[in-house]
């Protein structure tokens, strides 16, 4: 794991291997074994397209061979920005076969975010759709290349769909059409199941929520990320009969490995890809495919409950509905299970590692009011006050954690690591929680200036910096306020020279600046000035109180 400055100690690594948490297998090797063990069983469904485990294994070889032909080698980083399509899984495992590293980008990311990911990761390639949700990702890649220049740009862009007329992009179908190497050739070239990767190597890079601007990159190894998925799968009792519906963006850690796509495939189950999160689309797939498990964020819950009441859907196969990404209001937790005829499971975790789940046999009051407890017996939890001293159970404090699947250092971010971790390796999550005697955690809030809008993490400082580029805005503060549907909504308080811009104008301006659409404020409020604290910082608590009084 040479890409990070900090990692687990030799003693910790040995302990996690001895406990069976780390199994010493790469994801490329795991898929090869799954192809042998479950060959004819359906692994992946996307619309009318289906892949058995044997098909998925062979497809990974084809994609790997095509990528090698483009010069992608072990250790190369590749930004993957694909919506919910089977191609995300095919590309992901194709990269694992080479020992290359997928960088999970979100479909809503735009020039600023994608350019940042390419710069920080040093990506040699990007994989994008032609268009998604009315947006042309080919034009996005042209903008990124123009901004980064020939030295900093990815040398290859692979497009799923129509690559366009200019010939500068590689069509994904052409990549797949290349026949795989013969087994002997693969062994001689050092590719085999995983391109010679080591289980301790970085297998993928996830994105942090970010509190100081653009996201940090989170290195996850084959060993630790496989345990992440497997531990969650064990808590959720996944097996070969599991049918998981990927409703949320497939590149999210929640969707991909909690237990999600990876946990389902490691259990021999079936992954069904939903092209959008609407309850109509999802319920039709539940009926058709016999879905047993899916994952939602709180803003989707009321829509699903309403559709279940209004429609005549057969949801009998659905056993468990996970809800995470933001705290689920208790009243929504109370109605969701009966509405869908399923067990509700609250999920609280982070791409950096620690995952908490309520258990399937937890009492209703714990399911409704807590965000679960750690999935691993070796997850270490501290709840501390502002001075770093542990607080008693029931008292709010900052959550610190370390363990067999929680990172010890961000990717190429040594300066940030000095404040993000304690000297003994605990990760400072920035989450304020209360721990119950049962070990369950109740999320109280955040100590960092980050807004959680329906599971989308928004760094206030990034949006504020871009608001100040609007010609009419002279000062700005972005504040999160409680919202029943989203958990939090964003309000921009602005001081203006002249007429204040409205929500649409601000959204258009931020879009032109290259920000993802979800970062645009839900409301814009003009103020004469921004209140300050005693130490001269903007008093966002006072702004929030002002809004709630109005």
Automatic annotation (TrEMBL):
<feature type="domain" description="AMP-dependent synthetase/ligase">
    <location>
        <begin position="32"/>
        <end position="411"/>
    </location>
</feature>
<dbReference type="Pfam" id="PF13193">
    <property type="entry name" value="AMP-binding_C"/>
</dbReference>
<dbReference type="InterPro" id="IPR000873">
    <property type="entry name" value="AMP-dep_synth/lig_dom"/>
</dbReference>
<dbReference type="InterPro" id="IPR045851">
    <property type="entry name" value="AMP-bd_C_sf"/>
</dbReference>
<protein>
    <submittedName>
        <fullName>(2,3-dihydroxybenzoyl)adenylate synthase</fullName>
    </submittedName>
</protein>
<dbReference type="Pfam" id="PF00501">
    <property type="entry name" value="AMP-binding"/>
</dbReference>
<feature type="region of interest" description="Disordered">
    <location>
        <begin position="176"/>
        <end position="197"/>
    </location>
</feature>
<feature type="domain" description="AMP-binding enzyme C-terminal">
    <location>
        <begin position="462"/>
        <end position="537"/>
    </location>
</feature>
<dbReference type="InterPro" id="IPR050237">
    <property type="entry name" value="ATP-dep_AMP-bd_enzyme"/>
</dbReference>
<dbReference type="InterPro" id="IPR025110">
    <property type="entry name" value="AMP-bd_C"/>
</dbReference>
<dbReference type="InterPro" id="IPR020845">
    <property type="entry name" value="AMP-binding_CS"/>
</dbReference>
């Amino acid at each position: 794991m040479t890409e990070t400055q900090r990692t687990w100690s030799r003693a910790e690594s040995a302990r996690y291997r001895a406990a069976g948490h780390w199994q010493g297998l790469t994801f490329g090797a795991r898929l090869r074994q799954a192809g042998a063990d479950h060959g004819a069983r359906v692994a992946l469904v996307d619309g009318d397209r289906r892949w058995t485990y044997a098909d998925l294994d062979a497809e990974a070889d084809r994609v790997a061979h095509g990528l090698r032909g483009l010069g992608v080698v072990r250790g190369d980083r590749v930004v993957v920005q694909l919506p919910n399509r089977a191609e995300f899984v095919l590309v992901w495992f194709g990269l694992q076969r080479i020992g290359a590293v997928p960088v999970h980008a979100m479909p809503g990311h735009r020039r600023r975010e994608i350019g940042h990911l390419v710069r920080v990761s040093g990506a040699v390639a990007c994989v994008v759709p032609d268009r998604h949700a009315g947006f042309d990702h080919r034009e996005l890649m042209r903008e990124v290349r123009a901004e980064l220049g020939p030295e900093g740009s990815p040398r290859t862009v692979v497009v799923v769909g129509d690559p366009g007329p200019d010939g500068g992009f590689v069509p994904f179908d052409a990549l797949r059409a290349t026949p795989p190497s013969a087994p002997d050739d693969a062994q001689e070239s050092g590719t085999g199941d995983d391109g010679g990767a080591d289980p301790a190597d970085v297998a993928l890079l996830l994105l942090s929520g970010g509190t100081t601007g653009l996201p940090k990159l989170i290195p996850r190894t084959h060993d630790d990320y496989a345990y992440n998925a497997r531990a969650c799968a064990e808590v959720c009792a996944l097996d070969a009969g599991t049918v998981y519906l990927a409703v949320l963006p497939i590149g999210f850690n929640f969707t991909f490995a909690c237990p999600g796509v990876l946990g389902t495939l490691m259990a021999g189950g079936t992954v069904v890809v939903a092209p959008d999160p609407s309850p109509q689309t999802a319920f039709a797939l539940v009926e058709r495919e016999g879905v047993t498990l899916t994952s939602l964020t709180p803003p989707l819950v009321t829509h699903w409950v309403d559709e279940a009441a209004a429609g005549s859907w057969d949801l009998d196969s659905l056993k468990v509905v996970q809800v995470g990404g933001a705290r689920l209001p208790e009243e929504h937790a109370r109605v969701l299970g009966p509405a869908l005829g399923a067990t509700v499971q609250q999920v609280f975790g982070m791409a950096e590692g620690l995952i908490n789940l309520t258990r399937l046999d937890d009492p209703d009051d714990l399911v409704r009011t807590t965000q679960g407890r750690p999935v691993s017996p070796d997850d270490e939890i501290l709840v501390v006050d502002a001075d770093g001293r542990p607080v008693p159970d029931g008292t709010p404090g900052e959550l610190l954690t370390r363990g067999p699947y929680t990172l010890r250092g961000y990717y190429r971010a040594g300066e940030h690591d000095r404040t993000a971790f304690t000297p003994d390796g605990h990760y400072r999550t920035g989450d304020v929680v209360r721990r119950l005697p049962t070990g369950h955690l109740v999320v109280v809030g955040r100590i960092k200036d980050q807004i959680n809008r329906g599971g989308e993490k928004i760094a206030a400082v990034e949006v504020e910096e871009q608001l100040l580029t609007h010609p009419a805005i002279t000062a700005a503060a972005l504040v999160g306020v409680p919202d029943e549907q989203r958990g939090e909504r964003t309000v921009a308080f602005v001081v203006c020279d002249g007429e204040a811009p409205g929500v649409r104008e601000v959204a258009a301006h931020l879009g032109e600046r290259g920000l993802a659409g979800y970062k645009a404020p839900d409301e814009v409020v003009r103020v004469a000035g921004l209140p300050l604290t005693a130490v001269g910082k903007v008093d966002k608590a006072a702004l929030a109180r002002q809004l709630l009084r109005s």
